[in-house]
Design a protein that fits this description.
Number of helices: 6
Distance between the termini: 124 Å
Strand content: 5-15%
């Protein structure tokens, strides 16, 4: 029976699923964004976020725990180096899933999953929104002074004598 087994098995055995999620987590850490199906992305988020959370505390024990899940020294070094400094003040929600439509071959829902602090486009939009002003505030702040219009001199013709 399937009672209380609510996570997605992704049509794989336990060992295959663990290896796939480990490899996808390493790819996510190294590339900061990966394209995949929606079901795999949701399973990856559940798998990767506790691992990323462990990187906040840089101890030998936490590095060993993370390495036991990832089995990739380069990914562990990247996670505890650059990524850990960016997520230090964040309390959770380290990944974002954005849907991209359906795949042509089999109609599977596709998306990309990315680390939140590494999307430059969305970070630029946040800073741009803070700097915007309304037209009314610009007019009130800087009144336009009108310059007097200089009249053109009238050319006089000599009078006939």
């Amino acid at each position: 029976m399937r009672h209380n087994k609510k996570f997605n098995h992704l049509s794989r055995t336990a060992s295959h699923r663990a290896a796939m999620l480990s490899n996808m987590t390493c790819s996510l850490i190294m590339h900061k964004r990966i394209f995949t199906t929606l079901a795999k992305a949701k399973a990856l988020r559940v798998y990767a976020e506790p691992i990323i959370n462990k990187a906040k505390e840089d101890t030998t024990a936490s590095r060993r725990v993370v390495f036991s899940y990832l089995q990739d020294k380069k990914a562990v070094k990247e996670l505890f180096g650059d990524i850990a400094t960016k997520i230090a003040e964040r309390n959770g929600g380290y990944t974002r899933i954005i849907k991209t439509g359906t795949r042509l071959g089999d109609g599977a829902k596709t998306c990309f999953i990315e680390l939140v602090d590494y999307n430059e486009n969305m970070l630029k939009e946040k800073t741009a929104k803070k700097a915007t002003r309304t037209r009314r505030s610009k007019k009130a702040a800087a009144p336009v002074a009108e310059a007097p219009v200089a009249e053109a001199p009238v050319a006089e013709t000599p009078a006939a004598e």
